[in-house]
Amino acid sequence: MTMSAPAQISKTPAEEALQRNFEAVVDALPAQAGSGAARRAAMARFDALGLPHRRMEAWKYTDLRTSLRDVSEPAVGTAAGIDAATLDGALGALAALDVYRAVFVNGCFSADLSSLPSAADVEIAPLSADRGATGTASGSDNALDGESIVALNEAFVTDGLSIKAGTSAHLAKPIMIISARTGDSDLLVTLSHDFELAPMSELTVLETAVSVGPAGGQSNTRVATEIGDGAKLAHIKVGSLTPVVDLATWTARLGRDATYKPAQFTPGAPLARNQTFVTFEGEGGDLDFVAGVLASGTDHVDTTIVVHHVAPGCRSRELLKAVLNGKARAVSQGKVIVDREAQKTDGKQMAQALMLSEDTEFDSKPELEIYADDVACGHGSTSAQIDPEHVFYLRSRGIPEAIAQTMLTEAFVTEAIDAIDNEAIRGAVAQLARDWLAANAT
Amino acid sequence: MLEITDLHVKLEEEDKEIIKGLSLTVPKGEVHAIMGPNGSGKSTLAYVLSGRDGYEVTGGDIRWNGESILEMEPEERAAAGVFLAFQYPMEIPGVAGLTFLRTAVNALRKARGQDELTTPAFLRLAKEKGAELNIDIDMLKRPVNVGFSGGEKKRAEILQMALLEPSLCVLDETDSGLDIDALRIVSEGVNALRSPERSMLLITHYQRLLNYIVPDQVHVLAHGRIQKSGDKSLALELEKSGYAEYSEKAA
């Protein structure tokens, strides 16, 4: 017997369970979010690929074949109720934000809990209400064909939010998408969102997830974004406030002079992978990506971003700040591809970890693939402990040691949080970070 | 009153004694200057007073108002009234100056049994004291000392001193890196804090500072101990003759 062809790799129990679960629920999954045929095609792709593993360069540090042992029952998009006050309680600092809300409960849009704007030039609707079987989120775009996580998303998707902002549209308030869980059993919640910004429009979208009961489980979220010429999108994610295995795939295509500000904050997660794929298709595009990772215990948080400069004269910035305690592990992979035509590209990435204990691990892998000759690209990575000189300086001013440590840890992530333009959201995220640090970083 | 008696200090990491039997008394309300050549142990003395790690006291004692401070943590010393104005103030990215100052002021007030200041009350105070030192409130919204010039950092140290109301001020080479204008502003700030309730120890290499902040006594520190003490005229003498005499003495 030879050991070579990938096809001969035996299925893991998780892969088998996913296949089994799919067959059990496929006919019950909402057709508005994907036809049975499209789902079966996606599942066949997954079946051929299997879960990503460490021998794949993009999954070197996050081997789902080994780390994804159990698979939760898939949500099938049946409506479930949550008390509004209970939901607010679970949202903590995010509850008080003055935003439009799109709430999904167990993967199904809840009109009762949502408050969508009624603006003439912005169409917002859940997939369950409005969608042909072939929406823009499915099918093939970017380098994602074959990504088994995306295939799983297309197979199991139950709902999602579609936002179409018309030319020069502005909303008075940000939109907050909340994926809530309720009930006693763990669930796999699969959502797919679509953001389409026509030229010169502007949107701020905040995305978060929470469980109002004991239910945890897994989530697989896909966000497909198109930002038209001169349009601007700030997309802020606050990872699940209650622990779940969280897989998220964002793809964004930027037009001429478009601005994209993705921000991903993870307040701890047993296993999280946020993968973002950005393509500059028009000249003068601007990307400002930040990630704030807070991880303790045995958390594993992977932030992967691939930035593809197709058009010339675009600027990309990526900053990751990770605070690690216990035996937590953070992964930062940043790849920048600059095509031959993409002259005058200005790309910089920085990944920094603050290690509060000796058993933490930070894997940072920057990659540059440059085919143009007139570009400025750079990357850097640091991992360090809190500077004892800084601690001493604060203590010499009367600040007790524990408070000094917390101040300096908070200061470390502040740089990422400060990238959020919306003041109220910035304040709420800072508060969540402070709460997390108070509970996990001392 | 500060009483240092037969103090011996070595580096924790290596077997090198830096302070070798130093004795010094600074009565309440007095300003004393310590002058000495490079490497004489001046900065070590400042750090040992503030409780910095890396030094081991192998003999003698430091008492402040009758109580030994050697076993105290840095924040406990600060609460007891000890303040060190650093020669090289630390830059702390990400911590806003006002947050740092308010946290420090209120931590000290709490430790000293006083009520904490409300944010508006604190801001009024910071504004008022800042204005005296030419420090704009906008400068304090920035991260602590980040991007400050040498002179700005020293002025910020004196502002901290004014806000934290210490009873023992140790100023380590506060004049280094200052131009004439900055030296004047800093000195005025220090002089404004002179009071019968407050003792000060000025550590300096040059006599220049002492034209602005006139000391009650001057001590010459060399080879880890006080070699000579006198009034302010001793500083002028040193300015003329240099420290050569003290180098020979040891040789």
Q: Roughly how many Å is the radius of gyration of chain B?
A: 18 Å
- How far apart the termini of chain A lie comes to 53 Å
Give the averaged pLDDT of chain A, no decimals.
93
Largest sheet of chain A: 10 strands, mixed
Side-by-side strand order of the widest sheet of chain B:
6-9-10-3-11-12
Q: What is the approximate shape of chain A?
A: globular
Mean pLDDT of chain B: 93
**C-alpha-based Rg of chain A, rounded:** 21 Å
Which structural class do the helices and strands of chain A define? alpha/beta
| SSE run of chain B | EEEHEEHEEHHHEHEHEHEEHH
Regions of chain B with pLDDT < 50 over 5+ consecutive residues? none
Strand and helix layout:
The complex is a heterodimer of chains A (442) and B (251).
Chain A: H1 13-25, H2 36-49, H3 64-67, E1 73-74, H4 84-91, E2 100-105, E3 108-115, E4 122-126, H5 148-156, E5 161-165, E6 175-181, E7 187-197, E8 202-211, E9 217-227, E10 232-238, E11 245-254, E12 259-267, E13 271-280, E14 286-295, E15 300-309, E16 315-324, E17 329-338, E18 346-355, E19 361-370, E20 376-384, H6 388-395, H7 401-417, H8 423-440
Parallel strand pairs in A: 1-7, 2-6, 5-7, 6-8, 7-9, 8-10, 9-11, 10-12, 11-13, 12-14, 13-15, 14-16, 15-17, 16-18, 17-19, 18-20
Antiparallel strand pairs in A: 2-3, 4-5
Chain B: E1 2-11, E2 17-26, E3 31-35, H1 42-50, E4 55-64, E5 67-68, H2 74-79, E6 82-85, E7 92-96, H3 97-111, H4 119-132, H5 137-141, E8 143-144, H6 150-164, E9 168-172, H7 180-193, E10 199-204, H8 209-212, E11 217-222, E12 225-230, H9 233-241, H10 244-250
Parallel strand pairs in B: 3-10, 3-11, 6-9, 9-10
Antiparallel strand pairs in B: 1-2, 1-4, 4-5, 7-8, 11-12
Helix pairs in contact in B: 4-6, 6-7
